[in-house]
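Human: We require from you a standard protein entry with sequence in single-letter code and fold as tokens, and nothing else.

Assistant:
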Amino acid sequence: MIVAFLGPTASGKSEAALSFALGNNGEVINCDALQVYCGTELLTCAPFERQMKGIPHHLYSFLDVDKPFDVRTYQSFAREKTKEVLARGKTPVFVGGTGLYLKAALYDYRFEEETEVDLSEFEGLTNEELHKRLKEVDPAEAEAIHPNNRRRALRALAIYLSRGKPKSRQYQGKDVPMFEDIRLYGLGLDREQVYSNIEVRTRRIFEDSRLEKEIFPLLLSHGDEEPGMKAIGISESRLLMEGKIDRDETIARVIRKTKQYAKRQLTFFRHQFKEVEWIR
């Protein structure tokens, strides 16, 4: 049996997954695209060792923030970990908010080969113009990408130009399970509770002394454009560190962004995972 707990950020899925693992001989496997990076745990809410209660946790905090990581690489890592956990007679318990990573790990996603393409024609476009171009060729993917996420928009356009078809239609076998017994549990249908959790958690993060001790030094040595520096709160923390906004404004901006992200996550999970048992 393989179990997965999915849902938007701050829905309580990590606590539910750990509780399940404790009672069912489980080991936790991360499926959050940013919790693979080390140094940003405070902002990504990756678990610290003291929170793991002796349960093995895999694919957390193992990459430097300047190292690229994508869904194809994650698929390979996650499937290998799944085999290792099953071979030990344990239950793999997936948890995280990156739905595409979970799909790639548990379903028969096969990635097509790509050729290198020239993206120079997009260099002078604003984020809004870039997003509009993406919407023209791949409306479904544009809907899933925030207009200010330039990196993802460029990636989707590169896939379209390389393969001649939209990213939203790139995967084969995406609904064919790789394993016989997969159980999916979803949390976060109570949106107001999720939003309340986001507010409480964000205030706690920005009152934590680790912000100055761990995040600020990271900001001094790494730019926001690096792969592991895309977490919500990174750019806001930089503005706070530089004295351009105060702590209250920082918290307000992060809360607003996180709520928007949670809404997109919930939409994705409800549309892409039809077999989920939703837990209130």
Residues 82 and 92 are 6 Å apart (CA to CA). The chain has eleven helices and six strands. The chain has a mean pLDDT of 92. The first strand starts at residue 2 and ends at 6.
